[in-house]
Amino acid sequence: MKSKDIFNKEPCIQYYYNHFYDLQQLKDKIDQVYELEKAKPYKVYIDFGSIQQKKKQVYKHQQTLDEYHYSHTGPSADNSYKTLPNTVVRDKQTNDYFKQKAVDLLSDYQDTTDEDSTTLKVALYSFLIVVYRLPLGTKMDKICQHFNKECITKNVECDYKICWFIVASFALYPEIDSTCSRISDAIKLFLQYHDINPCQRLNKANKQLLEQYNGFNYVTDLEKYQQMFKLNVITYTCDEMKHKINPSDVEQFNKFDEHIVDKDYLTVNVLLVPLSFVDEIHVMFISDIDKVINGKLCPLNCQMIFNIKNQNYKRDLARHFKYCQGPQTSKQVKLDHLPKPYYPHISNNKLLQKLVATGQSDLLMPTLNYITFDFEIVENIINEDNIIAQLEPLSVASAATINDQITTLYFDLRNGTDFIEQWISQLFEVAVKVNEANQSNIPDITIDDKHYIPYKPQVSVIGFNSKKFDMNLLLKHLIKNKTKIQYIGSTTQAKQTVVSLQDYDFDLKFIDILSFIPPNNTLKQFVEKFETKGIKLKKRIFPHCSFNYDNYKLVLGLTTLFTKDDFYDKLNNKNISDEDYEQYCNDSINFENRWEYLKYYNIRDVTCMINLINHLIQITWEEKVDMLGCMSLAQIACQIKYKYCYEKFDINASYNIVNGFEQFEVTQYWWNDKVKGYINQDKFAKRDTTNNVTEDDFE
To answer: Which SUPFAM superfamilies does this UniProt record tie to the protein (predicted)?
Structure first.
């Protein structure tokens, strides 16, 4: 949590939370902020840090292609007021209301059904809660006289704390020129705001109300103020006052908040000035907004600012007026200064870039060492009447192939509730050996270039149908281990997740093998369709529906075999065949209890994928594309296509640029006409032609 103190002239307090992965954390943080700020009402906003996916359609090679670009945006106080409407927290009830609004906003962020949008938020990783604790408005202080003297603001001395109503008077009735009339008009507006007839004389009760008025509460009273006087309010603050050294020095103003209720309302600019010795804020009507923004603001309200000290200021302003469309800014296309080739088969592979740069692309070899993993889950029944269950991890297994040797890891709930953290710790240690095996197959290449940036190798960790449950489960535990995570995909499906730890000189890249094969395949179908000749390693069966989270210890601790009825699938209303059950019985004879068979079943799932993945790697390598260097089957197809386009390209060859323009040749005939034209221009302008060029100067 990181906060900024209001007493050192900061207009707001910001509470950051940079490791956001659970909804309960959001609720707890909102309650924690409420406990810190509940002494007086405050206005609160929230903003989330997000990972964005931008889709762009380009027309190349007589077809339209989709390009996806990913970027991240951190939470910002400047954007927080855009996410939710003004919310003033006065008590626990209003805090609960804001909490529910924040949860609803989170649901809106996770909704990616808007296919028309080119930019989608695909992940949230942090959030920021911004609290505005503005003190009450009060009467004018001597420090404010400086702004009046500089003709930045307009204000009058008044014994009452009605500065906000003086601002409204300046905005609504600018023709009033006397101080007494201005104060009288502000008092009428004050009485009107408090539902008192302003036409009546200032009686004793109204005067007592003025004297006892503690000031305008910015966070609770502004909405009624705007609706009653039909004003849009834009507030500014000034940095801490310092003595001017040079007459040319100017104060630095910052835009604090913007409250636009109706575009037809009158817009008033207000300066918030903290008083010197009391914890109160005085407001003044800004008469010259150009001095506040230190430039000329476009009067059409397009937020364009021009530097008045620029010698081309008038020209730029006139040109802007010609094309300005007001708040609806026109879109402009920005092209690169130089055309750039598109070669994804090279740009997406850091090693291939080095080999191409050194003319050794023939030395490239596919990545043959990797890790497979799989989770086994158990149902935790929450509501038996509605058959609502939550999936809980039961065990995890992984298999690493290192120079054709397979190393396995296995952990389950018998190792403790933190068995996933134990597995992750061991996974990095195994990945060290996998990375060493991969690096031993890479040729030694040195590039003597000060601008060359070494790349960090990646070890692929491959799951089957792991985009949803497996990765969401892993992310929760990876964040606990203080890792750096680069996430690509939506909130429901992870296309690729890269995990980094400072202690290791490589990254773990979690991918799903389903991204490289046709969709709608189960692991059993994957094994049957892509099995290699001579190697038949079939997937085994396990009765997941025969127990739940409440009785798994009792059921799995038994030494007897599962019955055939235990394999009955209630969801699909079917059971296994006699042949499959006989195979299970033959396998179970070798194990002491059901826990050991679960271990065998889980490890079998991750090892049976290895030969199939190796087969896919070899098929892809026939086109000289490294499968594990890609993210999906579509990316592999794209790289193969562009590889053929660059098949005859030689990086060391010199290619002439064909621009389509013919070279201009200067002839004697053209030169003679040019000389005559210069002479005629000078004679018409009555200039001396003695030193002009002649026809003899052609050479």
So the answer is: Ribonuclease H-like
